[in-house]
Amino acid sequence: MAHDDHHHDTHGPGHEHGHGHRHMHDHGDIDWAGMAPLLEAQAELYTPLYRQALTWLAREVTEPGLVVDVGSGPGVVSCLFADTFPGARVVAADGAGPLLELARARADRLGVADRFDTLAGDLPGALAELDYPADLMWAGQSLHHLADQRAALAALGGHLAPGGTLAILEGGLPARFLPRDIGIGRPGLQARIRAAEEDAFAEMRADLPDSVAETEDWPAMLTAAGLKHTGTRSFLLDLPAPASDAARDHVTTSLSRLRERIGERLDTEDRATLDRLLDPADEASVHRRQDVFVLVAHTVYTAVRPL
């Protein structure tokens, strides 16, 4: 199940990659060890959102024995699962060995290493190495990078115990960082960036080898994969202005990567505005301005493997 990396750090239109997770298929040309600090920082910033989601899952899922984090990255969310389900064994599964080393180190620091394991290899194929089926499986913003999303859901479901739950995080609302009118350039810059991202994402999907077009109806896709859709819930991260240093760093990194990836899709004025926002010496930059915030919603869908 190979797929395009979509510039290494986005999970679809409007979503920065990271948040502790990475894609389900490894790519040898990516310096995952070098990216690790960014992935960890993003995941830690988004921890309040993840805690909301896991608290909800804890009401939906009764005392799982095995939790598998599919595409775990450096294990920030994996360790949140260990905290949420103190009786569970947690497996962080990923294709990047350097990130799994960080996951193991984090589990050790947090005192959960005795019930924390890692699984390296291309996913979902590597899940065949699990000792037994999962009671709860989590896939955060990775499925939309696979050519056949429905087949991927079926593959994940095949590694669930009867009655086990698959929880996927996909979609929601794109992150907003700035007001509509920021005092430089034309108002509505982020909306135009969003439109360019949508086009780039559509091209990424279309360019995947053997890409299967799907209406983005995740409950319907879960049902078609042989699972029973049981719930949908969205969770909000609201970090208001003035931004903390961590939030400001996240905004700076996110806009820098957007400039690299879709900057040429913007007109000259918008590129110039984005360059000013990213110039630390400019009083109007995100490094200095007081109206920077982070506001984003992520949606989680749950489904159960029939008994």
The gist of it:
With 307 residues, the protein is α/β, with parallel strands linked by helices. It is built from 9 helices and 7 strands.
List the helices and strands and how they pair.
Blueprint: H1 32-45, H2 47-60, E1 66-70, H3 76-84, E2 89-94, H4 97-109, E3 116-120, E4 134-140, H5 149-157, E5 160-176, H6 189-207, H7 218-224, E6 228-239, H8 245-262, H9 268-277, E7 294-304
Parallel strand pairs: 1-2, 1-4, 2-3, 4-5
Antiparallel strand pairs: 5-7, 6-7
Helix pairs in contact: 2-3
Written description of the protein model:
The chain has helices at 32-45, 47-60, 76-84, 97-109, 149-157, 189-207, 218-224, 245-262, 268-277; strands spanning 66-70, 89-94, 116-120, 134-140, 160-176, 228-239, 294-304. The chain is α/β, with parallel strands linked by helices and 307 residues long. It has one domain (6-304): Vaccinia Virus protein VP39 (Rossmann fold, 3-Layer(aba) Sandwich), CATH 3.40.50.150. The protein has a seven-stranded mixed β-sheet. Strand 1, helix 3 (76-84) and strand 2 (89-94) form a beta-alpha-beta unit. It is globular, with a radius of gyration of 19 Å. Residues 1-23 have low confidence and may be disordered.
